[in-house]
Amino acid sequence: MDKYIGSYQTEDPNIIVKVIINKGRLSLNITGQKTLLDLYPPDDGGVWLMRFNPSIGIIFNESDDGKIISFTSILPDGTVLVRPRIENQ
Prior knowledge:
mainly beta, 0% helix
């Protein structure tokens, strides 16, 4: 799970999504939100579902050399949002 840990940018430059490990689970810590969003382990297709709403999925995107460069959120209405990784955050 360590390779996913890091900061990811949203469309709002003031809101950062930090991927952390909390109590042995991958979790999202979003600027301005008091609650961590825990994820279920990935399914066979590599989709991490949110525990509070399993209709929202996260897919981590890797470069050719295996580094995580972004994640893609898939919302219940089919909206797809790409969150680029921010280095040194």
